[in-house]
Fold this sequence. Notes:
This protein is mainly α. The protein folds into 2 domains: 3-33, no CATH class; 44-97, no CATH class. Helices cover 69% and strands 9% of the residues. It has helices spanning 3-17, 19-28, 42-70, 78-94; strands at 29-33, 38-41. The protein has a two-stranded antiparallel ribbon. Strand 1 (29-33) and strand 2 (38-41) form a beta hairpin. The longest helix is centred in the middle third of the chain and has 29 residues, at 42-70. The mean pLDDT is 76.
Amino acid sequence: MPAWLVLLLGLIVWLVRNPAVLSKLREHVASAKFGDFEIELRELKQQVAEAKEQVETLKDANQQLSEIVAAIDTDAPVDEIDAARRILCRCRSAAPAPHGRSL
Length: 103
């Protein structure tokens, strides 16, 4: 008998004798396919969805900031630029500083 078959049978027997492990495995695994070994984990899927939401939020914030910067007239007097400066200062104070540096 091939070694992989013995290991597979041993694993099946162990899982039958330890049903708590099998039930915990069902909590974390959404689907499994052994034909090219595909396994889908619920937690990773949820984290990817959350990361995609964060990317969309950052894209929106970047778009807003780009619009503010594009609207600044560099040749305008200081009192006209003051409103844009205040908006940019609010954006900087709301965003975390990159690499622990203060803005």
